[in-house]
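## Example record

The block below lists the input lines for one assembly entry, exactly as stored, with component labels intact.
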Amino acid sequence: EPEVTQTPSHQVTQMGQEVILRCVPISNHLYFYWYRQILGQKVEFLVSFYNNEISEKSEIFDDQFSVERPDGSNFTLKIRSTKLEDSAMYFCASSEGTVAETQYFGPGTRLLVL
Amino acid sequence: AQRVTQPEKLLSVFKGAPVELKCNYSYSGSPELFWYVQYSRQRLQLLLRHISRESIKGFTADLNKGETSFHLKKPFAQEEDSAMYYCALQTGANNLFFGTGTRLTVIP
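Predicted C-alpha cells for the full assembly:
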C-alpha cells in the first residue's frame, strides 16, 4: 500500500538556521498539507497546497515558512530562520480530494532547535 | 471560530469493557468529522469518518448535531485498541482541525 514518506526522521539545528523538511506524497494525490505538533500539544494545521500554489494557511505559517513542490514527487517545507519555538514534530499529509477526503499522514520529522 | 474538545487526556478501561471517547465540536458551518488514531510508533491514520457511517475495528461514531458531538464507541475493548485517538474537524476549506487527543489504555 502506498505511503507518504518524510525525510529526515530527526533534525537538530541551531537557532537562526534554515531547515528544509522533505515529503513524498502518495503519487496520485493532488492535495498536500503540512501540520505540526509541539510536544504535549495538539496537531496544528500549517498549510495546504494544490496545483502548485498554497490553498490555505494558518496564522502559524508566517513569512518564515514556505512550501514548494520542486519536482513531480517531492513536497518541501522550509523554515528560513528557525526559532526555539519551532521545535516540534512536523507531519506531511496528502489526499486525493478535499471535502471529506481521507488525509494520509507521513511518519513525521522531529525538529529540535537549539 | 472552530473548536474541537476532547475532555479526557487519558482513559483506561479493562479488556472486554465498553469504551467511549468523547469529542465535542464548535463550528458554524456544516461539519465533516473524523477520528484519527496513532498506535505506538506508528503514523497518524484515519480510523473512521462520519460521512461513511461505517464501523472500523468495531468502532463507531455518530454525529449528533444537536449536542455537537462525535463520540467514538466500541462495545468490547481489546488490548490492541490501546493508542492515541484524535477527533478532527474539517472546515469549509480542506484543513483538519484536531482535538488534543485521548490516550486509551486497555488493561488486560
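The CA atoms of residues 22 and 76 of chain A lie 5 Å apart. Chain A touches chain B at residues 3-4, 31, 33, 35, 41-45, 48, 55-56, 58, 91, 95, 98-108 (CB under 8 Å).
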